Amino acid sequence: MNTPLRIGLLGLGQRGLQHLKALWLLQSEGLVKITTLADSFPVNLNDDKIKSFVPGYCQDNIKLTTSFEELIIENRPDVLYLAIPPNLHHGELIKAAQMGINLFVEKPMSLYLDEALKMEAAIKEACIYSAVGFQQRFEPRNEAVKEFLSDKRVVQANYTFHTHIEFHNVKHTPTETVGGPSNRIWTTSRAWTGTSAVENGIHTLDLWRYWLGDVVWVQANYVNRLPNEVIEGADNPHTYNIFFGFESGVIANMALSRLRRVYNSYLDHQILWNEGRLVLNQDKIVFYHYDGIYPPETLPDDSQICHSFNVTQVNDNLLDYSTLEISRNFLESIITQSPDSIRSPFSDAMNSLTAVIAANVSDSMDGARIYLKDLLTDKKYAPHREKKYS
Ligand SMILES: NC(=O)c1ccc[n+]([C@@H]2O[C@H](COP(=O)([O-])OP(=O)(O)OC[C@H]3O[C@@H](n4cnc5c(N)ncnc54)[C@H](O)[C@@H]3O)[C@@H](O)[C@H]2O)c1
After folding, report:
1. Residues forming CATH 3.40.50.720 domain(s) in the chain
2. Each residue of 277-311: pLDDT tens digit?
3. 5-134+320-345 has CATH 2.40.110.10 classification
4. Between the N and C ends of the chain, which has fewer C-beta atoms within 10 Å?
5. What does the alpha-carbon distance between residue 339 and residue 336 come to, in Å, rounded to a whole number?
6. Is 135 in the pocket of ligand 1 (CB under 6 A)?
């Protein structure tokens, strides 16, 4: 496909603006031409508002519209970015796929497996290029971990992320006008997110898949909020304990919490292989492994077992960097017609989405083990696949 690729973007909220910032840089490199920005709420197309998020933004020659049809039919882009809340899809992705428009879709692609399966089928049938917004696969430290683990027999992964419910921010969708929370903090709402496992846990689960391969089964138990603990529609569970079973035999354990009045976050992320343990801290990665003559005559000291990990430093903000790189990778894959270099095509991302939705299903069945293959096809799970909110 010829450069510059013509780009349309649907949804100019938190994530859409981050994409626009990256696309603005790629436009200055001649890779793309941003042709249309669409949002169903005119306030989010306001020039000054966009400028405050995208340095150097200028609306000249860009069509602004609140109409999806105008975006895809009259302005027909080569690539469409979809960054709208996951419960608000109304066939946009499928229509664009049927027109042969390549698609960059934000995670989670839907909250409902039936809808996601239809999206996947439309993408396959149209033979278009697709990518899902798992930009953490492009962080240098996560690429280095992938390389480091590639020759090891990984046996366990552990991720604990405790944060406070007040950590969630006010979003750009005027949710109060479409049946959502009055404070616009939709990431605390189960109807809007699926749960925090689907909205946020999916990033870590997808990284595990990048390092360790596909998930086969899931078991989960949550502690749900009681009706009197729900404030302004914030009804996602207090806590989550989720086990993911991988095809490779690895078992991973994710513990999450979203409590009120804590105002503090805690993160611990460790990967264990048969002869060592990798600890991913915010600022550095260390691993514990004894590489000397075995067995040692005396117990090894810290200098013999504790090693740190060299990771290429990123000067920019890490989210800006990885958001730019995931787009660059996708767009260059289209231009050079190299679908295999896309790290998260839609069909690959289906395993990540199914796994986190399976966690919700498992919790609703008292922690039963859910095999993803069954969840996607078995009649008994049909009610768990259906679209429930419009
Ligand atoms: N990859 C990441 O790290 C990351 C980070 C944040 C959000 N996200 C994902 O991006 C998606 C969007 O989230 P957000 O944080 O930008 O939300 P947001 O509410 O801030 O923005 C959504 C935008 O879409 C617009 N919109 C809503 N419904 C629409 C419709 N039907 N048609 C057109 N426009 C519509 C809203 O007006 C708003 O401008 C979600 O799926 C979210 O999970 C991903």
Report:
1. 5-134+320-345
2. 999 987 789 999 999 999 999 999 999 999 998 88
3. no
4. C
5. 9
6. yes
